[in-house]
Amino acid sequence: MRDALEAAHRGYGESTVIGVAAAGQTIETKPFQLVTGRVWKGTAFGGWKSRQDVPKLVNKVLLGELPLANFLTHSFEGLDKVNDLVHTMHEGACLRGVVNINPLENALNAEDIRVVSTVKSQ
Asked: Residues of the signal sequence (predicted)?
């Protein structure tokens, strides 16, 4: 992370830390790197705000504009498979997975869900 900041152009360069570091980790740098005009920023979730943006995403899914199935690489049947999914993700073999805890009852389709809130345009 420090190398990324130091590689940014002096005067107007910007370095963005994405995601979350391990617990207890620190970053050390020289103040000179910042007072010469470099910018160091951080972001999680791409800068999205849950309260405002999740309803927009839900609407996109319901309208078929965001095909979630394209992002799911693994599916596990039954609650007893949760650990299998976690293990698969930790191995790096899975982008995103879903555990269907009760595959025989209450299957939901996007058509069955009704949007109860209106998303305000900004």
From this structure: none
Q: Rounding to the nearest 10 degrees, give the CA dihedral for residues 75, 100, 55, 53.
A: -40
**DSSP secondary-structure letter at 101?**
S
Give whole-number Cα distances, 37 to 42, 105, 114, in Å: 16, 58, 49
In this structure, the answer to whether residues 88 and 41 fall within a common structural domain is no
Whether the full predicted model's pTM is greater than 0.85, yes or no, is: no
3-class SS at 50?
Answer: helix
Same domain, 42 and 60: no
Question: Distance between CA 74 and CA 90 in Å, rounded?
Answer: 13
| 44: CB partners within 8 A, 6+ apart | 18, 19, 20
The tally of domains found in the chain comes to: 2
My answer on whether 27 and 60 are in the same domain is no
Cα torsion 82, 83, 84, 88 to 10°: value is 110
Q: What is the pLDDT of residues 49-61, one digit of tens each?
A: 888 988 998 999 8
